[in-house]
Amino acid sequence: MTQLEMGLKVCSRCMTELPVWEFHNSITGTQRVFAYCKPCHRDYIRERYHSDPEWRAKVLARARRSGKTYRAGLRTAALAAYGGMCACCGEATVEFLSIDHINGGGAKQRRETGLRGQSFYRWLRENNWPGDFRVLCHNCNQARGAYGYCPHEREREQTA
Questions:
Q1: Shared-domain flag, residues 90 and 151
Q2: Which DSSP string corresponds to 37-98?
Q3: Cystine design at 140: which of 28, 50, 56, 88 (Cβ 3.0–4.6 Å)?
Q4: Prediction pTM value
């Protein structure tokens, strides 16, 4: 019976025999268990992070990429949940879209809760996409905030 089958493993760094749950598992989901125990692995990463600028740059770049992808996905999901296009003019270019508080009060909510950007989109998702929000393009949203109406609404009223 091997050490892994018994649930024990020796750390290659501190040479301490520990239960396997004290080691990181492979991300691939295989039976692979890393050589260092969790505290030694943390120390190794910390030492390498501070002593190897090239490796540190790679780690930071990977973290930025994954964070950017997560935020973009969260925003896309929020826009899709509220229709994916401007409720006023029909603009569908994602870069031009924003979430609007239907009854106003966005500034008040931001002051009270501190929700902005990613945390706001996460709050929307966690609250099952509440119904008092909609998608507007930045132009329509800005006009409604500044003037209380959107020029598109006035155009529609005049043609009707």
A1: yes
A2: EHHHHHHHHHHHHHH-HHHHHHHHHHHHHHHHHHHHHHHHHHHHHTTSS-TTT----GGGEE
A3: 88
A4: 0.62
